[in-house]
Amino acid sequence: MEYKISPSLMCMSLFDIKEQLSVLNRRADMLHIDIMDGHYVKNITLSPFFIEQIRPHTPLVLDVHMMVENPTDFIAAIANAGADFICPHAETINRDAFRVINLIRSFGKKVGVVLNPATPVEYIQHYIHLLDKITIMTVDPGYAGQPFIPEMLHKVSQLRDLKQQQGYHYLIEIDGSCNARTYEQLMGAGAEVLIVGTSGLFNLDNDLDKAWDKMLDQMRQARQAA
């Protein structure tokens, strides 16, 4: 199985963004962009303006993770800025999930949802068939560099089994501590998209091309062992 690799842009060096983006354009499958409002999580990172600024400079799929209290306040801006996937947290849309899904689709975008570690798959059971991607948080949301939560492996396997049994089309994406210590477990559980950040990519080498090669070597070893 070929895994999609999605670097997290909040972990890249903003001083070297032009050079690093040129490397990612050659090597990545998609780009992960975190939008935080300072309320849903106590952090503020990137914004719709950031999406608008990089959209002309990359042909890659832009996957936007919305860590915000009120996703409908941001969806139009994110869509118009050039996002391809728009992914709110399931916990923030439970009261109007179908309306939110339809709103994202009305902009011609793909729909994802994100599940926090303590949120079960059953939480999205009534609209899971409508989703293009499901992201499993393997750390609590809000900050980079947190420790992996191994209990999430069961959730990944649960989504893999549901997809196979029901013929669902969603991608299974992992967000949080995707690195050499966890690749084998994640691949064995059924992960399809790996979001790589500080520990998985950017801290492996100051030269991003060399860091990418090191990451691929780690993934190959994990794939052989999985």
Summary tags:
single chain, alpha/beta, TIM Barrel, eight-stranded parallel beta sheet, 9 helices, 19% strand, globular, zinc, AlluloseP_3_epimer_AlsE, metal-binding
3D architecture notes:
Belongs to the ribulose-phosphate 3-epimerase family. AlsE subfamily. Homodimer. Its cofactor is Fe(2+); Zn(2+); Mn(2+); a divalent metal cation. This protein has 226 residues and is an alpha/beta fold. The protein has one domain (4-225): Aldolase class I (TIM Barrel), CATH 3.20.20.70. It is built from nine helices and eight strands. The chain has helices at 17-27, 48-54, 75-81, 90-93, 97-106, 152-166, 183-189, 198-202, 208-225; strands spanning 4-7, 30-36, 61-67, 85-88, 110-115, 133-137, 171-175, 193-196. An eight-stranded parallel beta sheet has the order 1-8-7-6-5-4-3-2. The radius of gyration is 16 Å and the shape is globular.
Q: CATH first level: which class?
A: Alpha Beta
Corresponding CATH superfamily: Aldolase class I
Shape: globular
Extended strand count: 8
Helix tally? 9
Topology as a string of helices (H) and strands (E):
EHEHEHEHHEEHEHEHH
Low-confidence stretches: none
- The CATH topology, please? TIM Barrel
Determine the N-to-C terminus distance: 11 Å
Q: If you compute it from the alpha carbons, what radius of gyration comes out, rounded to the nearest whole angstrom?
A: 16 Å
Report the oligomer: single chain
- In helices, the fraction of residues equals 25-40%
- CATH architecture level-2 label: Alpha-Beta Barrel
Write the layout of secondary structure elements.
Layout: E1 4-7, H1 17-27, E2 30-36, H2 48-54, E3 61-67, H3 75-81, E4 85-88, H4 90-93, H5 97-106, E5 110-115, E6 133-137, H6 152-166, E7 171-175, H7 183-189, E8 193-196, H8 198-202, H9 208-225
Parallel strand pairs: 1-8, 2-3, 3-4, 4-5, 5-6, 6-7, 7-8
